[in-house]
Write a structure and sequence with these properties.
- The protein is an all-alpha fold.
- It has four helices and no strands.
- Helix 3 crosses helix 4.
- It is rod-shaped, with a radius of gyration of 63 Å.
- The termini are far apart.
Length: 167
């Protein structure tokens, strides 16, 4: 029934192999595998080139950072010096402003003390003059109480002084 000889088997395997190759060729052509493989190759090549570019950029960034770190001591020193100069300028300005404010307050206090002094002196003079008038009044009253003729004499002197006035 079946002939299992090497020639039949070989002949059968060759036919099967040819059918299989034809089938794979059809599938490869249908699925456009060649173009997809080429697209993948191009994509991989682009990614490799991009990674090379990114690597170069990273190396440049590293070099720039290294250069800036090498100069950081001098930059920090310059910043600190500038900050100290600015602080000294602010300190000088603040001292000048404070001295002006102190001088202004001192002048104001001196004026206020002088004003108070004048006020106290005026008040004292008023009190002294009132006290002098009061003492004089008491002395005149006591003198008038002792001598009634003196009272009459003062009234006549006053009337005579009014007559001498020119209106």
């Amino acid at each position: 029934m079946f002939d299992f000889s090497w020639s039949n088997i070989l002949h059968s395997n060759v036919i099967n192999f040819a059918i299989m190759i034809a089938f794979f060729a059809y599938i490869i052509k249908k699925l456009n595998v060649g173009q997809k493989i080429e697209d993948m190759r191009v994509s991989i090549q682009q990614k490799v080139e991009e990674s090379d570019n990114v690597k170069k950029e990273a190396e440049n960034d590293l070099k720039n950072v290294s250069d800036s770190l090498a100069n950081i001591e001098s930059e920090l020193s310059a910043i600190v010096n500038k900050a100290q100069e600015t602080a000294k300028a602010f300190e000088t300005k603040a001292r000048e402003d404070l001295d002006k404010a102190v001088e202004s307050i001192k002048n104001t206090v001196e004026k206020q003390v002088q004003s108070e002094e004048n006020h106290v002196q005026s008040s004292l003079m008023k009190n002294v003059s009132n006290a002098s008038v009061e003492i004089a009044r008491h002395q005149i009253e006591s003198a008038l109480d002792k001598d009634a003729k003196l009272h009459r004499k003062y009234i006549e002197d006053f009337i005579n002084s009014i007559d001498k006035l020119e209106v």
